[in-house]
């Protein structure tokens, strides 16, 4: 089984943390969209986060999701929603496991988010293309590398591919950008 995850196009969030905020996607780079659309042809059933930016990206790629899956929403950043990255608190040097457990006030931790995303991905039976968020990609990667998944870069409109052999997941490619 092959799982292809395409992160949505850049969000129009003015450089602020989007998380659960439902913001539009910038789908104006037609060349990048065409390159990524060509890469995901035949990737299997399409499912997407219900976030507007994911639905807009899927439409711009010419894809129609078979279903919108609420569990694939981005991490709820609570009090951090809408903040510019430079306004986020400095958590200091945390081991990956501690960072994965950290919960912003009123939000959810990476571990919380992965606990809702991973069962959806584990239940998939055939090749599937997921249009979702950076957090969704990292949750998928956590099935292979645990909390170290937080260290992966996940660019807008990038593709990550995992394969499952029986019950074992393997990473095929991470962060394949349109310009790569």
Automatic annotation (TrEMBL):
<protein>
    <submittedName>
        <fullName>Histidine phosphatase family protein</fullName>
    </submittedName>
</protein>
<dbReference type="InterPro" id="IPR013078">
    <property type="entry name" value="His_Pase_superF_clade-1"/>
</dbReference>
<dbReference type="Pfam" id="PF00300">
    <property type="entry name" value="His_Phos_1"/>
</dbReference>
<dbReference type="InterPro" id="IPR029033">
    <property type="entry name" value="His_PPase_superfam"/>
</dbReference>
């Amino acid at each position: 089984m092959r799982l292809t995850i395409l992160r949505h196009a850049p969000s129009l969030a003015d450089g602020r943390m989007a998380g659960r905020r439902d913001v539009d996607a910038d789908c104006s780079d037609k060349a990048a969209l065409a390159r990524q659309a060509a890469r995901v042809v035949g990737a299997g059933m399409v499912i997407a986060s219900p976030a507007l930016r994911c639905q807009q990206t899927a439409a711009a790629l010419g894809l129609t999701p078979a279903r919108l899956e609420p569990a694939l929403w981005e991490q709820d950043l609570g009090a951090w929603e809408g903040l510019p990255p430079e306004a986020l608190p400095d958590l200091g040097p945390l081991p990956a496991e501690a960072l994965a457990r950290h919960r912003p006030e009123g939000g959810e931790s990476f571990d919380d988010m992965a606990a809702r995303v991973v069962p959806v991905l584990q239940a998939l039976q055939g090749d599937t293309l997921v249009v979702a968020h950076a957090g969704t990609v990292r949750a998928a990667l956590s099935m292979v590398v645990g909390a170290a998944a937080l260290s992966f870069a996940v660019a807008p409109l990038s593709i990550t591919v995992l394969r499952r052999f029986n019950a074992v997941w393997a990473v095929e490619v991470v962060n394949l950008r349109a310009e790569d």
